[in-house]
């Protein structure tokens, strides 16, 4: 067979380009550290790599103080108030220079926790320059990381980081959002709205009640998140206190460990392998992911109400909705929120499922996994910010609500047939087959007010019942919807 040479298309030559990887300041690879930095920046104080190292320093410093002040290790000197303050200042003054120095040490150690240990020991060695030659801090250098495995420091550091991110950043934003949804629910508690089940006209409700349902669901998830436990352990390489007992056999190491973990404000976990089991993290991340998914439901519902004209988007001066259609005001805040909630939930799901498993006494799958806690919360926080900004730019078109209701008088088939059933039970004659009769009247048809009132008038209902039904309109057939809004807390 004759060989046919492959044809390679002639590609246009591309001039050499500037390497964006070499640009200063560095260009962010991901959107959270680039385009959306402003919305998520507060999380950097808690869930970034420098934040992790700062918490590691915090744990190491407090461990030295704990051992010294409780006389755990024989011969260790007690620390003065000034010496304790000096140690703690290593944490509070942790800045860009400290980050750089720690990075330089890690290039040598090729071990992040060991780098933290050496960094702190440098400060102990330098203490006489600040506190005077008689300070005992250089003498307690070997209390740094005493009997600790890296995971003793890491698990406590991550617990402090996540607790800080949740309580100081994520929860306040989420609570504010739920409060704003609840306020909208109360504002529109009496606004009649044609409900749609399966996308079809259904029993009317109120806009306020539908918003209250979502606020109630979100609030319930927040209460679960607020009640989260943050666990920690300090018990050595395989959770046995082996090194502790070998070094200082007379110490009550379980008591030392428990009081130290509780001193950090965490819940002590007495039974672990080398790692704290991370079950508390899985529980928390599942709850946050569930909050995300309820919020996603709100975003899609609001988007739909916007497309129906129930909500009007208030244009922002100078903003562009479409590059080609000048009239458009797109619901971009809610669409952006949907995407970020999906990304966040996917990461949280992965964290929750991966972190509960560790081969035998330890593997390192949790190390890389936990470094993505920041992006997981970042995408959620960004979504919360977008929904809040989106909701603030909405107004309700009462005219659309009224016209939608007035075009669907057939929804009154439900109360009429229900009243016929009640009348039948009370002994009124002529009330046979109420559901079937209303089905024949209404299904697949559009009725007018006159059609419905004529039908009601010919049923033979008691006068008071007939009058009550004849006076009813789709807009007044909302049951207790407005009152149900009062179940919202706060």
UniProtKB/TrEMBL annotation:
Bilayer-crossing residues are none
Pathway(s) of this molecule: Purine metabolism; IMP biosynthesis via de novo pathway; 5-amino-1-(5-phospho-D-ribosyl)imidazole-4-carboxamide from 5-amino-1-(5-phospho-D-ribosyl)imidazole-4-carboxylate: step 2/2; Purine metabolism; AMP biosynthesis via de novo pathway; AMP from IMP: step 2/2
Start and end residues of each Adenylosuccinate lyase PurB C-terminal domain: 358-478
Q: Which GO terms describe its biological process?
A: 'de novo' AMP biosynthetic process; 'de novo' IMP biosynthetic process
* A Pfam entry, by short name: Lyase_1
All residue ranges annotated as the Fumarate lyase N-terminal domain in the record: 34-337
Alphabetized, the UniProt keywords read: Lyase, Purine biosynthesis
**Keyword Ligase appears in the UniProt entry:** no
Entry-linked PROSITE patterns: FUMARATE_LYASES
**What GO molecular-function term can you cite, just one?**
N6-(1,2-dicarboxyethyl)AMP AMP-lyase (fumarate-forming) activity
EC number(s) per UniProt?
Answer: 4.3.2.2
Q: Which CDD domains match?
A: PurB
Q: Which reaction does it catalyse?
A: (2S)-2-[5-amino-1-(5-phospho-beta-D-ribosyl)imidazole-4-carboxamido]succinate = 5-amino-1-(5-phospho-beta-D-ribosyl)imidazole-4-carboxamide + fumarate; N(6)-(1,2-dicarboxyethyl)-AMP = fumarate + AMP
Matching entries from NCBIfam families are given as: PRK09285.1 (NF006764), purB (TIGR00928)
Function, as annotated, reads: Catalyzes two reactions in de novo purine nucleotide biosynthesis. Catalyzes the breakdown of 5-aminoimidazole- (N-succinylocarboxamide) ribotide (SAICAR or 2-[5-amino-1-(5-phospho-beta-D-ribosyl)imidazole-4-carboxamido]succinate) to 5-aminoimidazole-4-carboxamide ribotide (AICAR or 5-amino-1-(5-phospho-beta-D-ribosyl)imidazole-4-carboxamide) and fumarate, and of adenylosuccinate (ADS or N(6)-(1,2-dicarboxyethyl)-AMP) to adenosine monophosphate (AMP) and fumarate.
Q: Member of which family?
A: Belongs to the lyase 1 family. Adenylosuccinate lyase subfamily.
Q: What is this protein called?
A: Adenylosuccinate lyase
Q: What is the lineage of its organism?
A: Bacteria, Bacillati, Actinomycetota, Actinomycetes, Micrococcales
């Amino acid at each position: 067979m004759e060989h046919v040479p492959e044809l390679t298309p002639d590609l246009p030559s591309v001039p050499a380009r500037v390497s964006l990887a070499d640009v200063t300041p560095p260009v962010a690879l991901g959107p959270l550290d680039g385009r959306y930095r402003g919305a998520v920046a507060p999380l950097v104080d808690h869930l970034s790599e420098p934040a992790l190292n700062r918490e590691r320093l915090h744990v190491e410093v407090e461990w030295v103080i704990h051992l010294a002040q409780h006389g755990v290790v024989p011969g260790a000197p007690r620390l003065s108030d000034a010496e304790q303050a000096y140690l703690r200042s290593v944490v509070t003054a942790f800045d860009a220079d400290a980050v750089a120095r720690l990075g330089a040490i890690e290039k040598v150690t090729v071990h992040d926790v060991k780098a933290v240990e050496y960094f702190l020991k440098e400060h102990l060695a330098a203490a006489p320059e600040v506190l005077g030659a008689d300070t005992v801090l250089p003498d307690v250098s070997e209390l740094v990381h005493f009997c600790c495995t890296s995971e003793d420091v890491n698990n406590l550091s991550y617990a402090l980081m996540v607790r800080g991110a949740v309580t100081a950043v994520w929860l306040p934003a989420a609570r504010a959002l739920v409060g704003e949804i609840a306020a909208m629910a109360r504002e529109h508690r009496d606004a009649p709205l044609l409900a749609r089940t399966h996308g079809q006209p259904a029993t009317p409700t109120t806009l306020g009640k539908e918003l209250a349902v979502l606020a109630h669901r979100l609030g319930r998830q927040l209460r679960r998140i607020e009640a989260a436990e943050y666990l920690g352990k300090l018990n050595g390489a395989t959770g046995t206190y082996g090194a502790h007992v070998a070094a200082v056999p007379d110490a009550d190491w379980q008591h030392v460990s428990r009081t130290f973990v509780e001193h950090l404000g965490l819940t002590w976990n007495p039974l672990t392998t080398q790692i704290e089991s991370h079950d508390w993290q899985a529980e928390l991340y599942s709850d946050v992911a569930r909050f995300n998914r309820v919020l996603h439901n709100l975003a899609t519902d609001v988007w739909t109400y916007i497309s129906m004209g129930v909500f009007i988007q208030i244009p922002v001066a100078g903003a562009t909705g479409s590059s080609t259609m000048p009239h458009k005001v797109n619901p971009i805040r809610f669409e952006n929120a949907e995407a970020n909630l999906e990304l966040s939930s996917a990461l949280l799901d992965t964290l929750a499922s991966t972190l509960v498993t560790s081969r035998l006494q330890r593997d390192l799958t949790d190390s890389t996994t936990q470094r993505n806690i920041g992006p997981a919360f970042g995408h959620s926080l960004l979504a919360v910010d977008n929904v809040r900004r989106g909701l603030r730019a909405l107004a309700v078109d009462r005219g659309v609500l009224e016209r939608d209701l007035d075009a669907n008088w057939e929804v009154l088939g439900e109360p009429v047939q229900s009243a016929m059933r009640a009348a039948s039970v009370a002994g009124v004659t002529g009330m046979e087959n109420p559901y079937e009769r209303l089905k024949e009247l209404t299904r697949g048809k559009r009725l007018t007010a006159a059609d419905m009132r004529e039908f009601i008038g010919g049923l033979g209902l008691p006068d008071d019942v007939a009058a009550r039904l004849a006076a009813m309109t789709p807009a007044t057939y909302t049951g207790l919807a407005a009152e149900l809004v009062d179940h919202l807390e706060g």
